[in-house]
Amino acid sequence: MEEKNVIFLFLELAFAESTYMILAILNGALFLFSLLYVILFLRKKEPLASVAITQAIRISPNNLKSTPYLIVFSSFLLFLLLPLTIGLSIYLRSDANVLVVILWIVWTYNWIKYAFWRE
């Protein structure tokens, strides 16, 4: 009876860590595909043809009804979440997950400051 509980506990821990790893891989893949879509296809269309990528990120929250700006904004959000998902998939069951979250907050703050409030 005790062996069953240990096996179920091990399977539960392995499934939780693999879930975060799958989430990190999915986040990375979605970010790369959206970035490739922006670079290869949307740069030729009119709203983004005359705008730099940092300016497109800056004006995208105001134009979310437009598909190109929605894709640029979602790509930026996936980029911001990338270190969090990768870090938590690696350091989920240790004390380093606190450092991952703190570094993610610094990462997000700096990129948002660079993208939206740069002069």
Mean residue pLDDT: 78
Give the CA-based shape: elongated
Distance N to C terminus? 65 Å
Oligomeric state, counting identical vs distinct chains: single chain
Total helical elements = 5
What is the makeup of the main sheet?
A: none
Write down how many β-strands occur, each being a DSSP E stretch of 2 or more residues: 0
Structural class: mainly alpha
Low-confidence stretches: none
Helix content: over 70%
- Estimate what percentage of residues fall within beta strands: under 5%
Order of helices and strands: HHHHH
Rg for CA atoms: 19 Å
Could you please describe the fold and organization of this structure?
By secondary structure, the chain is mainly α. It is 80% helix and 0% strand. It contains five helices and no strands. It has helices spanning 2-40, 46-49, 53-59, 67-90, 96-116. α1 packs antiparallel against α4 (67-90), α3 packs across α4 and α4 runs antiparallel to α5 (96-116). The longest helix is centred in the first third of the chain and has 39 residues, at 2-40. The radius of gyration is 19 Å and the shape is elongated. The termini are far apart.
Question: Which helices and strands occur, and which strands form pairs?
Answer:
Elements: H1 2-40, H2 46-49, H3 53-59, H4 67-90, H5 96-116
Helix pairs in contact: 1-4, 3-4, 4-5
In short:
The chain has about 120 residues and is mostly helical.
Attribute tags:
mainly alpha; 5 helices
